[in-house]
User: What shape does this take?
Amino acid sequence: MASGRYFACLIWVAFQALAPSADAQSNWPQFRGAQSLGTSDDARLPERWTATENVRWKQDIPGSGWSSPVVWGNRVFVTTVVNRGTTEKPKKGLYLGGERPEPPKEVHEWRVVCLDLNDGQVLWNRQVHEGVPESSIHVKNTFASETPVTDGERVYAYFGNLGVYCLTVEGEPVWSQRWPVYKTNSGWGTGGSPILHADKLLVLNDNEESSFLVALDKRTGKELWRTPRTDKSGWSTPFVWTNPVRSEIVVSGDGKVRSYDLDGQVLWEVGNMSHNAIPTPFAQDGLLYVTSGHVLGKFKPLLAIRPGAQGDITLADGATSNDYVAWCQKAAAPYNPTPVLYDGRIYVCLDGGFFACYDAKSGEQIYSKKRIPNGKAFTASPFAYHNKIFCLNEDGVTFVIPAKGDFEILYTNPLADDDMCLATPGLADGKLLIRTAVRLYCIESTEVKKTAAAP
Assistant: This one.
């Protein structure tokens, strides 16, 4: 058995070496990129910008939406919902007191928008549904907070309490799948994004009434399987973890993280997680990382998990590891932003403006929580490239922190005063795409290297 496992590991390592990495791709097909890491090795990406400096283009986006931009080739896709009446403006930093228990009474338009990556021109703007919303949302949420996903042929737009709409990349409808409206915790609405794996579109819908994980045929929309879940409301995006043992669907939920096989059967679970799960699982170098940290929760763990687990792998009281949990930092987790793993370190940006760093293999704390000066509130997940970590706050200011050495703020990159930011940016083809409450920015370095004159 040991030799078999060793051989499997060798095959997996060889596969990983030959497979194209998310960093090497010019596409950004889903939330946090192809491997859900939020990183890039593209040397052309910009390090400094403002609302006018290093801006290749900016385009106003009608309506409201916190979905991230996704990219395939020269096309950028975002979702939005247009209120034909008046939409209350979101308030930065507000969680408590933001409940709006009654659905809006005005007609809304659910839309998918495609822009040209090179100049920001709108290539098409397709309305997929029209009507009065049947559910409420928190004042900071929108009806278009789920990031779409694309495979280069089609774009799949998921609107949580409405359903899934599949369009060609040219904007032509292919299929749609509707389901009932379910209550969410405090009427906050939905937010977890869909992902693609092989021929399956995977959608998680955790709510107060009938939570489920479902796999749809990406070509036809036919339901392939549906697994009921006991979890209550959550806003996390699933993750497919391909490791030396198998491929599995990892889902953060209400107090637990569960893993499912590709047919929707539970493989393992780990408890003592936070409720109101938001961050997305991610993996690298044979370890899976899961986290959840509600601001008022008892548990706020960041865990690393080894492949091959079965059953309940919850840590015993006082323990920080077991056969399958490699390590646990019990009070490290953020609430909204997903941590970023870059060059062997995990960087955690907490909602209230603190920042910490851990060794990805051992879990050892490299430096404890440091205050980001004037950072205020953070909802978007951090991203990384050029040996730097970028943390975008709700005011539209990006704080740039070195990926090596001690904590410091190298510089800050502000946007305009009306640029509230909750969406996680996209990285593609040397360009940084930042969505704000009112517009989409394409940031690109315009520095020109000077060539020495010939003598």
Q: What stands out?
A: The longest strand covers residues 122-131. The CA atoms of residues 58 and 441 lie 4 Å apart. Confidence is low (pLDDT under 50) at residues 1-24, 448-455. Helices lie at 2-18.
